[in-house]
Amino acid sequence: MLVGFDTQHFAILDQFQLGLSFADIEASGEGPGPRESAKDHRLNSLSCLLGRSSTGKSSVFLALHFLSQSLLYGPELAAERIADAGFDSLLNYADQDGKSIGLGLNFYRPSFKEYLRYELEFISEDYETKVQYERVLKHSRQGTEVLLEVQNGEGWLRPERPNAEGPSTLDEQEPIELLDDSLQALAIYGRMLQYPSLAWLYRQIANCFVTQDPFDLNRLPARVRPGVETRLAADFSNARNVLAYYQQRDDRRVEKLQTVERILDKIPDTKITGDGNLDRQLTSGNLKLFLYYLLLEGDYSLICLDSPEAGLYHEQVEDLIREMRIYLDHNWDCQIILSSHSNILLDNLRPEEVWVMEREGLAAEEAKVQATWLGDKAKVQAMYKEGVSLGSMWYSGHLSQASETWYKERD
Questions:
Q1: Which residues contact 230 (CB under 8 A, 6 or more apart)?
Q2: DSSP label at 71?
Q3: Helix crossing, 196-206 with 57-73: angle to 10°?
């Protein structure tokens, strides 16, 4: 599970930290499990990024999407897939002279009670995007060890010897040399089962679903191409292809309730249309809810949804959050991160699940983005225990530092 995330010179996220830093991990020894410490600022299985517009919520998703796509397609193509102007549009605008981006992800691996960190630096040179530096760290009871380190295409890794009674032991360093410095070593060695920690880390990053903008569909799209697909696109444009996959899979099963029927039973007020694959009419919020439930049928390590409450009335938002919690209870290795500025969605969350994104002096172009965890805010916790919902606190200006300042000045 992703417990922390940091960036350098990425979009508006310059020197940005979200969740648990690796320095905190090392300072705490092996560390407790993800839910054992109220003072542990790690991301939860269900987390929400709350904030006004232009406070970096979408940039967090963009960075996670870029990392995931770079492992699958390489950084150059990944940047072109997610940004209109490619890699240069991902650079921090305040750092005009720099051409590099630094990204770091901290994961907790519960099976072995250890942490894995993946950090790398991309650089733009001669109109090409290259991997300047890449490293994988492991922290456990024994301390911190480097599993892989590569600079400009050359470096080393330490093979692992599986241990049935606990974490793998490490062998001597093994030199590696990549074909070119636009490749990520994790994209290669993370697909090999003889490197179990790297393989686990690769799956956690590559197996992500990220949607950056609230999608708006009036009807279920037709198939975007022939054939079936197992994963939904970020804009849900291939929903028919994914439905075809589930239909083929369900035909081989003996369960009475098929995938589409199971989803539709959770959605009220649908009408019969005679469609063989989807035999009820879905419009407006019901269609959006159906696609979200279809997403929760998949196998993902991380799901990021931007403003999922848009277009849904309050009861549908409650149903969606409840289904997300059920999904996470049955898929312990999955995680969902939402972004929102809606008091309706907040009413269905707990303080320890919310991070408030803010920028110091929103009028300043070089304002730093900061993320504040509500889990250790005594006033918020006290009000929540008294029955005041987070949505009411947000609407009243108790969650945002900027809002609190505005209310004090007005009074």
A1: 242, 245, 298
A2: H
A3: 130
Find all residues with CB under 8 Å of 233, minimum gap 6, and list them.
224
The pairing of beta strand 2-8 with beta strand 369-373: unpaired
Q: How far apart are the first and last CA of the chain?
A: 44
169-184: pLDDT as tens digits: 667 788 999 988 888 9
Beta-ladder partners of 355? 49, 373
Spatial CA neighbour of 390 closest among 375, 370, 402: 375
Half-sphere exposure of residue 50: CA atoms within 13 angstroms, side-chain side: 29
pLDDT: which is higher, 54 or 279: 54
Task: Check: CB of residue 38 under 8 Å from CB of residue 376.
Answer: yes
Residue range 35-61, pLDDT digits in tens: 444 357 889 999 999 988 888 899 999
Q: Are 146 and 158 in contact (CB under 8 A)?
A: yes
CA distance 164 to 251: 38
pLDDT at 93: 61
Percentages helix, strand, coil for the chain (3-state, rounded to 5) are: 35, 25, 40
d(CA 352, CA 370): 17
Q: What is the distance between the alpha carbons of residues 373 and 5, in angstroms, rounded to a whole number?
A: 14
Q: Binning pLDDT at 50, 70 and 90, where does residue 68 land?
A: very high
Helices 57-73 and 75-82 cross at an angle (nearest 10°) of: 140
Per DSSP, helices labelled H in 45-195 are 57-73, 75-82, 185-189
Q: Tell me phi and psi for residue 85, to 5 degrees.
A: -100, 15
Q: Left, alpha or beta for 350 (phi > 0: left; psi -120 to 50: alpha)?
A: beta
Distances (CA, A) of 210 to 90, 206, 296: 16, 11, 13
Least confidently predicted of 78-92, 102-116, 154-168, 301-315: 154-168
Supply angle C-alpha 152, 153, 155, rounded to 5.
95
